[in-house]
Amino acid sequence: MSSNQGNLGAFNFKVVLLGEGCVGKTSVVLRYIEDKFNDKHISTIQASFLTKKLNISGKRINLAIWDTAGQERFHALGPIYYRDSHGAILVYDITDEDSFQKVKNWVKELRKMLGTRVCVCIAGNKADLERDRVVSREEASRYAESVGAKHYDTSAKQNHGIEEMFLDLSQRMVEVAEQNEQGQAQLRPSGSTVQVIDDSEKPEKTGCCS
Amino acid sequence: MAAPKIVQIRSGATKQVDGYGFLKEPDFDDKEHADYVKRYLPILVNRRKKWDALLQKQQLPLSKNDLTKRYIRKGIPQVYRRLVWMDVSGAQRLKESHRGRYKALLASSLSKEVVHAIKVDLSRTFTHNVYFGSSPDGLRLPLFNVLGAFASAHPDVGYCQGLNYVAGLLLLVTRCEEDTFWLLEALRENILPSRYYAADLFGVLVDMEVLGYLIGNKVPRVHAHFKKQGIAWNLLVTRWHVCLYADVLPVETVLRIWDCLFYEGSKVLFRVGIALVKLGEEKILGSNDLFAITESMKETCTGPAVLDCHAFIRRSLEIADPLSGKTIASLRGRVGEDVEKFRGLRGRRCGGFTDLYLGNPLDPRS
Ligand SMILES: Nc1nc2c(ncn2[C@@H]2O[C@H](COP(=O)(O)OP(=O)(O)OP(=O)(O)O)[C@@H](O)[C@H]2O)c(=O)[nH]1
Ligand SMILES: [Mg+2]
């Protein structure tokens, strides 16, 4: 993973959402980016990404947020979706025990593929359905802590916990990046492909000659 | 024909929907659509007359010849679509040689996982179509039945997301659960390559590679651009292959593609893919990151040149001509071996098999 401060002092981070089908990954992203919720989201077959700009105490941060397919067989398409990620949000549905087990699998896979450099959040989504909860919050938090992740209760429906989660994740990614910056300034890997998304680098609209 | 009409929806609201029950999207362009209808309507009327005459002279099954091929390429009238699809795809033959099978499959039991996977997608299929709303006489139950039967028939495949769109659109056209099932069977048995919707999506992976390879030949500038930008091809085209363009392109265009698909086979899927990339070529070349490229591809897919299905189909069939079945078969074979090899090397879960041949090391030409 490269350090990610572009020449304008902005951090460019890639964040990926992973988790079983129908736990609410797309809903979480749309709530965060567009502050919208509707129950008509379609299942995600083809991963896509959206971007968000943040400013945390004067530091400019560009997030490229990747929403992925939940159905297992689409993972056969390989790890392109999480390759080079700086952060990962593993989402489960608090009313679905299996979806929490899937999170544990993802933790293993991410640690194997990306090591400890990747900052991980675990989101217990659909927290508005507290009455149907089957995954204990305590257990989930304890698990998260044991694997160096942070646990959040979220509800895309009621806009709960999502902003904080992304904010916290961003702060942790900045810390990691700054440590890397100091520690291994000369060890910058050449093959890394961090997406640089910065309006200053976007090409002018075609046909615009000013 | 997707001529707009007014329907009364259960909630009491009146909304404008097309002939298949799709609600107008917010970005619907009335003027553009009216232009297209004006151009397409006379063609439809004419094709209908021709088909009436054809079917007077000739009973189903249609014989396979150049005339039939030409008729099908110019579009099957909606009233005949179900019958002709059933015939030319071989679905009718399958259905007749397996009498009672569909009923039996409906009665067989399904695993909890499969039922769950299908159920969560029912309310997420064609959410902008009035027939897929929550009303009990809608198409959700038939869709569940078809997908469940298909999963029972092929436990190794189970339910693959994307099939909901394919089966959903088949249902909108045929209005018949059982025929929809047999059309899916025909797709699997006769039309798509093996292991297409398999648990490891092998056939889809191979076809994405093959399309990428063909793009290299037919639209080399785009190929070079992707390579230079390091963009993974399958981030753009997964849905094309998995949904057979359903929910990707305008409905009428998809149906015209499927007319050819059922008669000529899966080759048309590549032709369409090439035509789309060719149409979007300038926009793609002007986009320098994945986000911009995705957006420009989306624009192309729903733009006027694709909405005009008659011209688009002609363009697709011309653009990659000749494209022999043999070429496709040998490409699929070669790429398939590479995919197997690559997976073997890396192990399935961590298979770096991602950049496809666009990002190497899987360039079939090397
Ligand atoms: N009650 C409640 N429902 C939610 C919440 N978030 C999402 N949902 C619903 O859960 C369903 C699935 O949401 P999606 O966002 O499509 O789930 P996904 O994880 O992206 O699913 P895949 O794309 O198939 O992997 C939808 O019907 C949402 O409306 C939430 O916080 N509370
Ligand atoms: Mg989703």
TrEMBL record, chain A:
Pfam families: Ras
Gene3D superfamilies: P-loop containing nucleotide triphosphate hydrolases (3.40.50.300)
InterPro entries, alphabetized: P-loop_NTPase, Rab21, Small_GTP-bd, Small_GTPase
Chief localisation class: membrane
GO cellular component: endomembrane system
Entry's localization field: Endomembrane system
GO terms of biological process kind: protein transport; Rab protein signal transduction
Biased composition (Polar residues): 181-195
GO molecular function terms attached to this record: GTP binding; GTPase activity
Biased composition (Basic and acidic residues): 199-210
Keywords tagged on the record: GTP-binding, Lipoprotein, Membrane, Nucleotide-binding, Prenylation, Protein transport, Transport
Membrane topology: Lipid-anchor
Disordered: region residues: 181-210
Domain of life of the native organism: Eukaryota
Coiled coil spans: none
Family: Belongs to the small GTPase superfamily. Rab family.
Stored PANTHER family: PTHR47978
Protein name in the entry: Ras-related protein Rab-21
TrEMBL record, chain B:
SUPFAM superfamilies assigned to the protein according to its UniProt record, in alphabetical order: Ypt/Rab-GAP domain of gyp1p
SMART domains named among the record's database cross-references: TBC
Any Pfam family the entry gives: RabGAP-TBC
Keyword vocabulary terms for this entry: GTPase activation
Residue ranges of every copy of the Rab-GAP TBC domain listed in the record: 75-265
Single annotated GO MF: small GTPase binding
Superkingdom classification of source: Eukaryota
InterPro entries: Rab-GAP-TBC_dom (IPR000195), Rab-GAP_TBC_sf (IPR035969), Rab_GAP_TBC_domain (IPR050302)
Record's function text: May act as a GTPase-activating protein for Rab family protein(s).
Protein name: Growth hormone-regulated TBC protein 1
